Amino acid sequence: MSGRRRVFRFVEWTLRPDKDEDAPAVTYALRCLTLRDDDSECGARSRASTDPCVPQEWAFGHLRANPEHTSYAEVIERPWVMWRGGPA
Ligand SMILES: [Zn+2]
Fold it and tell me: Which of 37, 40, 66, 79 is the most exposed place for a label (fewest CB within 10 A)?
C-alpha cells in the first residue's frame, strides 16, 4: 500500500423525475390487496401498461373471477434520473 492519501472528488448530484424525450414511459399496474382466509395477500397483479385503463380492465376481470376481491393498489412506475450538478 502506498502512503498517499486518497483524493476524493465530491460531486453534487440531484435526483429528479426523468422527463427527457428518451426517458422510459410512466407505467401503471394494479395489484389485488384482498386478504385470503389465512391473511395472506392475493397478490394478483395486472401487467404494467402506459395506459391506466388497461390495469383497470384487468381489475374488473379479476373481480368477475373472484367476486370477493374488491381491494386494489395502483402501482405507478415513474422514471427518475441522477443529474450531475458539477464539482462542489
Ligand atoms: Zn385477488
Answer: 37
Q: What is the pLDDT of residue 3?
A: 60
The whole-angstrom separation of Cα 49 and Cα 25 is 9
Q: How does the average pLDDT of the chain come out, rounded? A: 90
CA of 75 to the centre of ligand 1 (A): 15
Tell me how far the alpha carbon of residue 34 lies from the centroid of ligand 1, in angstroms: 6
Q: How far apart are the first and last CA of the chain?
A: 29
**Residue 13 placed within a domain:** no
Domain limits for position 64: 24-83
Residue 48 CA to ligand 1 centre (angstroms): 16
